[in-house]
C-alpha cells in the first residue's frame, strides 16, 4: 500500500496529477478535528501526552499508559500490594485504605500503659461498663459516663450497719464516698457495691451517725 501525502491526494482530487496510474478517487479531504467537529487528527506522542498541553492531537491507549502519575503530574497509577505498603520503599504506587491498615498493623504497636501507639476509641456502652482497658475514652464518652453517675447524700451509722441511701440499687458500684463536713475520702468505711436497694452498708464500727456523706454510684445497668 502506498501512503500518499495530502498534497498528492489534493492534486489527484483536482485531476492534475499526471502520475496517477491507479486513478484514485478521493471524495473529500476533511478539515482538522476539533471539540465540535469530526475530521483529521494527528496522534500524540508519549511526551505530548505526559506534558498534557496539546489540544489538537489524539491520545492512544499506549499514550495513556505512558502518562504515569508523579508528585507533580496526574496520570495512571498502579495500586500497591500490602507487602509493598508494609515495606514502605515504593514511590510509584498508590496506597489504599486496606494497604494502610496492613502497614499500620505491622509498624504501629498497640497502645498500652507503657507504650505509645494506636488505640481504638470506646463507645459509650464500653465507657459506662468501665471494664475495658484497651480502648480510649473521648470527651463524649466521658460526658455520657458522668451523666449516668448517681450522686446522693446520706447520714452515717453508729457502728457497722445500713445507712439510708435513696436511689441506690443493688449492683450499683460505689465510685467513692466522702465526708461533707470532715473525714475527707471515706471509701474504706462503706461497701464497694450496693447490696440492698436504697441502702449503703457501713463497714466501719466507728460511730458516724453525726456525720453526713456524699456517694458517687455507677449504675448497675
Summarize the structure.
Among the domains are: 119-147, no CATH class; 149-218.
Strand content: 15-25%
Number of strands: 11
> What is the CA-atom radius of gyration, in angstroms?
41 Å
Largest sheet, spatial ordering of strands? 7-11-9
Helical coverage, percent range:
10-25%
Order of helices and strands: HEHEHEHEHEHEHEEEEE
Shape: rod-shaped
- Compute the number of helices: 7
The residue-averaged pLDDT reads: 86
Which structural class is indicated by helix and strand composition? alpha/beta
| Biggest sheet overview | 3 strands, antiparallel
| Ends apart, CA distance between termini | 88 Å
Low-confidence stretches: 21-27
SSE inventory with pairings:
Elements: H1 6-13, E1 42-43, H2 46-51, E2 57-58, H3 61-66, E3 78-79, H4 82-87, E4 93-94, H5 97-107, E5 120-121, H6 124-129, E6 135-136, H7 139-148, E7 150-155, E8 161-164, E9 173-179, E10 199-202, E11 212-218
Parallel strand pairs: 1-2, 3-4, 5-6
Antiparallel strand pairs: 7-11, 8-10, 9-11
Amino acid at each position: 500500500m502506498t501512503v500518499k501525502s495530502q498534497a498528492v491526494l489534493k492534486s489527484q482530487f483536482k485531476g492534475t496529477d499526471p502520475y496517477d496510474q491507479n486513478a484514485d478517487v478521493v471524495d473529500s479531504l476533511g478539515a482538522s478535528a476539533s471539540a465540535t467537529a469530526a475530521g483529521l487528527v494527528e496522534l500524540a506522542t508519549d511526551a505530548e501526552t505526559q506534558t498534557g498541553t496539546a489540544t489538537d492531537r489524539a491520545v492512544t491507549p499506549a499514550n495513556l499508559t505512558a502518562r504515569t502519575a508523579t508528585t507533580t503530574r496526574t496520570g495512571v497509577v498502579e495500586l500497591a500490594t500490602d507487602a509493598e505498603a508494609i515495606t514502605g520503599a515504593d514511590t510509584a504506587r498508590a496506597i489504599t485504605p486496606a494497604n494502610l491498615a496492613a502497614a499500620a498493623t505491622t509498624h504501629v504497636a498497640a497502645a498500652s500503659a507503657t507504650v505509645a501507639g494506636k488505640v481504638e476509641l470506646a463507645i459509650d456502652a464500653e465507657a459506662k461498663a468501665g471494664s475495658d482497658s484497651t480502648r480510649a475514652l473521648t470527651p463524649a464518652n466521658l460526658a455520657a459516663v458522668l451523666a449516668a453517675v448517681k450522686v446522693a447524700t446520706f447520714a452515717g451509722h453508729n457502728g457497722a450497719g445500713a445507712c439510708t441511701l435513696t436511689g441506690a440499687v443493688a449492683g450499683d458500684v460505689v465510685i467513692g464516698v466522702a465526708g461533707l463536713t470532715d473525714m475527707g475520702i471515706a471509701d474504706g468505711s462503706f461497701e464497694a457495691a450496693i447490696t440492698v436497694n436504697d441502702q449503703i452498708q457501713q463497714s466501719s464500727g466507728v460511730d458516724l451517725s453525726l456525720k453526713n456523706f456524699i456517694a458517687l454510684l455507677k449504675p448497675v445497668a
